[in-house]
Amino acid sequence: MATVSSTYARAFADVVIANRLDPAKTLAETKQIADLVRETKGLREVWENPAIPTEQKRAVLDGIVARTGISQPVRNFIAVILDKGRMKFLAEIVERFREALNQYMGVADAQITTARDLTTEERTELERHLGRATGKAIRAQYGEDRGLLGGVVARVGSTVFDGSVRGQLERIRRQLASA
Q1: In the beta sheet, which residues pair with residue 137?
Q2: Ranges under pLDDT 50 in the chain
């Protein structure tokens, strides 16, 4: 149901941008609700059960909103998902929402793996280079893999930039094998 998830996500991203809401805060609150649904079996069962009246589901939502301080726009968004019987898609909707917000803001998430921990300056420089290559601001998450031997592998969306020693050796091996 990627199209259903994307439709809801893009519509809410449009609301966030049009109303100049804080995208980071709105995303965090939406993720907070999605995490609560994922972690709480009883809540999931109530919200996904078509036999339970929508009014009761909304009452549960309003209780959560009052206790957690979730903003009204996020509450309304979750209420629409409840009303339309789409709660089983909430995690996917939130992920598509994050992607839509990133697109609006010109941000790209990057998974960066290095052979060693990088200094702050090295990280900044690497993110700057990736930003130039993608034309977007980079929001990076770092990991280590000593098997890379050296260098870096960066995944930005579906694009992989492999500047690792292991990657270079593999390319050399393929060239020699095809020669």
Answers
A1: 107
A2: none
Residue range 94-124, pLDDT digits in tens: 999 999 999 999 999 999 999 999 999 999 9
Which residues have a Cβ under 8 Å from the Cβ of 9 and sit 6 or more positions away? 93, 94, 95, 96, 97, 99, 100
Residue extent(s) of CATH 1.10.520 domains in the chain: 2-103
Q: What is the model's pLDDT at position 1?
A: 53
Domain 2-103: which CATH number of 1.10.150, 2.60.40, 3.30.1490, 1.10.520? 1.10.520
How does 11-38 read in b/e, with b if 16+ C-beta sit within 10 Å? ebbeebeeeebebeebbebbbbbbeebe
Rounded CA-CA distance 13/7 in Å is: 10
